């Protein structure tokens, strides 16, 4: 399980503004920020919902570009991300819609950030099942048969 991740950006102020606006529809905001003097390395900012799990730092942009996908609670949030990201200066890399080659309920949108990093918002839930992870998981694994659960072996008490 990933706790937090990050990327490097060439224009820190520009990218911070881009991500703050693009990710707002997904519930993200800038939660922490350090100057180079404070961190001892470089300017950095952490965005998140309840904790800063997505970081950006000023520096030569990662090459080749990174791909980072953010979870959206429903398809409307994916649409809103796409609109906000383009309005914030992102470049279109795939409008909101189903990508059935991933799975039948994979609804995503793709935008390139100011450095060309491929940023996505994705909702895995079927329509009407938003915010119900169990329903989404069921829809993703419906075709897979489960192996019968093994009985727990009884341990002798000492
Ligand atoms: N333009 C494509 C973008 C698809 C895309 O970027 N998919 C991701 C995986 S979900 C990917 O291939 N990332 C690799 C990369 O960006 O190099 C679309 O709209 O479907």
Quick overview of this protein structure:
Strands 5, 6, 7, 8 and 9 form a five-stranded mixed beta sheet that branches. A four-stranded mixed beta sheet has the order 1-4-3-2.
Q: Report the CATH superfamily.
A: 2,3-Dihydroxybiphenyl 1,2-Dioxygenase, domain 1
β-strand number: 9
The biggest beta sheet reads:
5 strands, mixed
What's the mean pLDDT score?
88
- The general outline is globular
Q: If helices are DSSP runs of H or I spanning 4 or more residues, what is the number of helices?
A: 4
Distance between the termini: 36 Å
**Structural class category:** alpha+beta
Task: Indicate the CATH topology.
Answer: 2,3-Dihydroxybiphenyl 1,2-Dioxygenase, domain 1
Q: Please mark out the parts with pLDDT under 50 across 5 or more consecutive residues, or reply none.
A: 142-149, 151-158
The gyration radius over C-alpha positions equals 19 Å
* Overall domain count: 1
**Reported CATH architecture:** Roll
Percentage of helical residues? 10-25%
Q: What small molecules does this complex bind?
A: glutathione
Instruction: Encode the helix/strand succession as letters.
Output: EHEHEEEHEEEEH
The top-level CATH class is Alpha Beta
Percent strand: 25-35%
Polypeptide structure, described:
- The strands form two sheets. Strands 5, 6, 7, 8 and 9 form a five-stranded mixed sheet that branches. A four-stranded mixed sheet has the order 1-4-3-2.
- The chain has four helices and nine strands.
- It has one domain (5-56, 64-132): Roll (2,3-Dihydroxybiphenyl 1,2-Dioxygenase, domain 1), CATH 3.10.180.
- The chain has helices at 12-23, 36-39, 75-87, 133-141, and strands spanning 5-9, 29-34, 44-48, 52-58, 67-71, 91-92, 97-98, 107-112, 118-123.
- α1 runs antiparallel to α3.
- With 158 residues, the chain is of the alpha+beta class.
- Bound molecules: glutathione.
- Glutathione is lined by residues 67, 93-94, 99, 110, 118, 120.
- The site of glutathione has 7 residues, from β9.
């Amino acid at each position: 399980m990933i706790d937090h991740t990050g990327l490097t950006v060439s224009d820190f102020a520009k990218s911070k503004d881009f991500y703050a606006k693009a990710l707002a529809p997904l519930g993200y905001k800038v939660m922490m920020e350090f100057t180079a003097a404070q961190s001892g390395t470089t300017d950095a900012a952490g965005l998140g919902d309840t904790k800063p799990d997505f970081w950006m730092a000023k520096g030569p942009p990662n090459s080749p570009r990174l791909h980072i996908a953010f979870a959206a609670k429903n398809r409307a949030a994916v649409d809103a991300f796409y609109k906000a990201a383009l309005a914030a200066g992102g470049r279109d890399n795939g409008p909101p819609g189903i990508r059935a080659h991933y799975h039948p309920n994979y609804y995503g949108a793709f935008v390139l950030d100011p450095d060309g990093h491929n940023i996505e918002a994705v909702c895995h839930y079927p329509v009407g099942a938003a915010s119900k992870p169990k329903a989404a998981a069921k829809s993703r694994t419906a075709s897979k048969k489960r192996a019968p659960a093994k009985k727990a072996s009884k341990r002798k008490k000492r």
